[in-house]
Structure formats: structure tokens, C-alpha cells
Here is the input.
Amino acid sequence: MRRHQILGLGLATVLTMAVVGLPLRAADEPVDYDALNRIKTQGLVATNSQVMEVSSWLTDVHGPRLTGSPGIQKAGEWAVAKMKEWGLENVALEPWPADPNNNNNGFPRGWTNDKFYLAAVAPQAFPIPGTPSAWTPGTNGLVNGEVLMVTETTAEELKTKYAGGRLKGKWVITSPAPDVQAYWTPPATRHTDESLNLLERPRYAELGATPPGGAGARGAAPGRQGGPAAGGGRGAAGGATPFNRNEFFRSEGVLGVFSTAPRGHGVYTIGGGSRTADPATLLTTITIPAEHYGRIARMIAKNIAVTLEADVKNTYHPNPAMFNVVGEIRGTDKADEIVMLGAHFDSWHASTGATDNAAGSAAMMEAMRILKQSGVRLRRTVRIGLWNGEEQGLIGSRLYVNQHFGTAGGGRGRAGGGGAAPAPTILPAHAKFSGYFNIDNGTGAIRGVYMQGNQAMAPIFRAWMEPFRNIGMTHVTINNTGGTDHGSFDAVGLPGFQFIQDTVEYNSMTHHTNLDSYERLQPEDMRRNATIAAAFAYLTANREELLPRKPATAAPGGGRGGSN
Here is the structure.
């Protein structure tokens, strides 16, 4: 994560003096320790907690949960039944609002991979694991062909060398074997006091010095290699339609293309193709581990013919039901005011979507169960939102916020770029909203909170964290962290927050990869996260005033970027 210095010297000195002393507490911020102990008893005691059982249902039974797939529909139905069993109210699969463009909000079709078989048959036989890209077609039965390496990228180069049937019935890879580094540093890490202190008190950027943590953002992981881009590259010029290399391959009769990830160790990252394109215009695309990709590429480089066979069945599901999962515990004297917990419910499909993001969804479901089972009194209504379509751009949470609270205005969603930008819209419920808390950084234990530029939250969060200091929740940071669903709330001026979490293996091993399974979850961390989320919802719900909102000139902070 990039960290930015955001305070003037004088103010920074004052705040630093405050944070290095005893925990700063708001004078009027009462904390009911008896109620928190009831919450802790439900959440932290392993024999009471249900967070890992919920996680198993969302992964082992109902994973993966690709947006628009039958899998996420079944997972949503299970979550609704479970929260009703716990006694929550108004539990439902809440449909996304109607799409004025009649495109099902960007999901004219869902997709599933129903069968995958891939193996080398010559010069010797060996199995090849892999995963097809979402929304790409299958092979229409068992197919067999030689693998060619095609490194050309422009239309002229490709047509000159390969047009006229020379690629028909072939598989394609588009780059040599990637270099794979050893794990020189442990793939699993936790925050140290030093790293947390840097989040809370960023160092000044000295002229000519490398920023703390280096130039890159935290969590940058090796991307895919060897897969042909859908368009762009050297063949595109000055506003012209980019050359689509995949379309050329398809038109020439290529069986499919392979990509990989240079991280190796059997780990690869998966993504999706076009959700809106006619499947008849798309090409089978498959991601495989670097070790298998490299073996094939090195044999081809030795002029040894490599033949593969595959049987991949992918199914399209027209106009799938699009929804968010919602439910609530009604408040008492302030029931018309809302506190929300949330996480994204969808996942990618190379594994069962455990750390991204059954971890967050299960923790927030468990937080709601804890609040209900513990019997603590809630003045405000506490609502859960499990969001669909996060991986495609925070779609579910953005649509929910726009429908219930208002829109940010500006250029979001404008077509064609012409005309005036739409004005913001503020709905009545906007004024009744207190705060939203999100979990979407894997299984790692919560260590603090990103304030999202809202400095007024510092003394409040410090008071609320004090009961959890003994389990490692100690720090707040003015920084923003982007790329996940709290941003949909923040975008319309509502208090929306993401927790600081230990990385564990999230960026190195599990984020969008084929290893993102139940085994990567840390049970103790999951119990702590659910308990802290429940406590923060309780404290927000019972506070006399709504949470403060940051001014339009809020201090900036660093951003993570990317979607989760």
C-alpha cells in the first residue's frame, strides 16, 4: 500500500504526541464492557462460535460463487435460510434495481465451468491442471492438437505468418516460460508493531529518498503471463479499434490459448473474459501453472512437438437473477437509523473463494448471529449486506447505495461522454445512516481501522478498540484503502470503513488464485474478526449520535487500488 504524508508539521507533531501516549478516548464515548463481554463470549469461545461452520458451507458446499452463476444463487439461498434460522428480520435476496439499458446491469449471461480435462499426450503423457477464464466457451467435446508458440502481436505480423489455415486445430501459447522466483521471504506474514506504526504515523517523504515500503503498493502480486490480450498493443493507433488477437486466433481455427502466472509453485491467478460479448465470437482460454506452461514452452523451444488434448464444458446462463443478500436486527428507540456490516459475497472460480471473500461474508454473518444470540440491546437497526458483483467493479454495493441512499453524481455510468454530468441525488435515508464496516482483506486478524480520511473518528475508534487491545486491535490510520465495497458508501458521503488486517497469505498465495480454499482460513483470526465486527456494530448502534461525517476537504490518504 502506498502511504502518503498528509499532515502539516505542526498538526502532525500534536497528533503524534497523542497517539504515542495512552490510548486517546473521546470524553463522551461510553463503552459498555458488560455488553462487550457478552459479545466476546459468543464470538471468541470456540465452542460457541459458528464462523468456521458458516465458512465451510460457503466454500465446501456452495463455492465457488462467481457472479451470475447458479453457485452464487444457491449460496445466497443458503445464507438467507441460515439468517432466518438465527432470528434475523427482513432477510432476503434483494434484487438489483432494473437496468435502464436492459443489459441486466452488465450480466446478460452467467457462466459455469462444468467439466475440465487437460493433458499432454505427446511426446509423453502427463496431466495438466488448469482453469478456463470465466465467460469463455468450452471445447465442444474432446479435442486434440499441437501447441504453437505465437509471439507476434500486430495484425500485419500475424496475418503474414499465420493466415490461411496455418493455425487451424492448434493450441497457442504466446510467450516463453516465465522465470519463477523462490520464496525468499515467508509467504505468510502478520503486521509488526513497526508496520502498524507506519500506517498510523507515516514518515515524511524526504526529498530524493525511497518512500517507506518501496515504490510499489502493498499486495502487488504477479499477474498472468502468456495469454493474448483481447485487444490493444502495437496494432492500435490513434483512436482506431484495437486489433483483437484472440479474434484472429478464433477466426483461424485455434483450439484455445493458455496463460500462466510467473509466481509458480502451482499457483495461478484466474479472471474472466467478456460478459457481454456473443459467446460465438470468443475463444477458449485456459490458465495453467507456470511449471506446466514452462515445460511445454521449453520443449517447443527445442523443436519438439507437444500435443495436448482437452475436454472443457462451459455453460452460459442467460439473464441470471442478480441480487444482494440482506437481513437485519431491528433497533429500539432509534430503529429508523441504520448501521451496516458488509462484505462481498461473490468470488472467482479457480477455487472455492475462501479468503476472497467467504472470510468476510462468514465473519459478518457470524457477527449478526453474535448480536442476536448475545441478546445485547440495539438502539439502531443493524443490517447486513453481502454484495454480488464486487469483483466486476463494486456493482452490487454501488447499486444498493444508489437505490437506498443516493448517488455521487459526476460521470459514473454516463454513456458516450456527451452532455452534462448528472447531479448527485440524496435520498431521505441518507440522513438516517450512521456507519458501514467492511471486511475484505482475507482471513487475517483485524489490527485496526482505516479512517478513510475522517479524522473525527480517531478518538471514537480508539475508545472502541481498547477492549480488544489484548487480541491485537491497536491502530487507526487516516489512510484510505480502496478497491472494495466500503467505497460505495464513502462515494456518497456516508461513513464507510475497512478494517486493517494481517496479510497472512492473502497477496502471496490466495487472492484470486486456485489455492483459495477453506484450508487457507485461520480459525482464531476468523473468530476475532467476527467478534470485533459485532462489537463495532453494537457500539455504533448504541451511540447517542450518528457517526461523524468527514468534510468535503477531508485529509487525503493512500489507496490500495484494485478490486478484491
In short: Residues 26-106+320-408+424-542 form a domain with the Aminopeptidase fold (CATH 3.40.630.10). The two ends are 14 Å apart (CA to CA).
